[in-house]
Amino acid sequence: MPHSRQPVGQLFIVSAPSGVGKSTIIGKVLPSFPRLRFSVSSTTRAPRPGEIDGKDYHFLSVEEFREGIDSGRFLEWARVHSHFYGTDRHIVDKWLKAGSDVLLDIDVQGTRMVRCAHPSAHTIFILPPSMEVLEERLRSRGTESRDQLAVRIAAAGREIPEAAWYDYVIINEDLQEAVEDLGAVLRACTCSRTARAGALKIFLSSLLDPAL
Q1: What's the Rg (C-alpha) of the chain?
Q2: Which of 24, 67, 153, 182 is deepest in the core (most CB within 10 A)?
Q3: Do the Cβ atoms of 151 and 80 come closer than 8 Å?
């Protein structure tokens, strides 16, 4: 029987403007994919009510984050809405090398940085049905001031056009449909010829040489 190396996991990146429902969609999809590891981002913003350090984010001080930048700790990092956000390089690389698939929840700027290091990463952008719906969702959260809402809405106007270069686009008009769409993308990518290359090679080799 021919030997094959441990297959390297696949990297998935999901982006969306604030208020689209990205975190909710990801949270509902993850239980259906036990091999998929979710990378918890680091941030310097304060925890929102109900958020748990290490589960929702790794909450760092600005000094800790800057030290991480200097030491090369982050695979990607960005300053968004006056706060720093970043992805731990060592954790992601460890999971991928172990054969686990990894999902990143990051913004457009971070996605560009990650694709420099991982050009085969699958990129997914989640859109709102309209800007009007997005604004209403942001207001209904009740977590931002009027000025903060204006900043997020303006940022969404800059981020949404970037969806044009993502591999997949999902519209969150109906939550359940959006969850199913993301699951379908993940499932299709894990069944691609590239993802199954190792198993396919072994199978074809056994056909060419029945003694194997």
Answers
A1: 19
A2: 182
A3: no
| Residue corresponding to tokens 């590891």 | 37
Spatial separation of the C-alpha atoms in residues 110 and 11, rounded to whole Å: 14
Instruction: Identify the three-state secondary structure at position 193.
Output: coil
The two tokens of residue 179 are: 């969850």
> In terms of C-beta distances under 8 Å and separation of at least 24 residues, what long-range contacts does 111-115 make, across chains too?
111/13, 111/15, 111/76, 111/166, 113/75, 113/76, 113/77, 113/78, 114/11, 114/13, 114/75, 114/76, 114/87, 115/13
- Domain ranges within the chain, ordered by starting residue: 11-39+101-208
DSSP reduced 3-state for 183? helix
Q: Which of 128, 117, 114 is nearest to 86 (CA)?
A: 114
- Coil, strand or helix at 143: coil
Q: In the CATH hierarchy, which top-level class contains the domain 11-39+101-208?
A: alpha beta
Question: pTM here?
Answer: 0.86
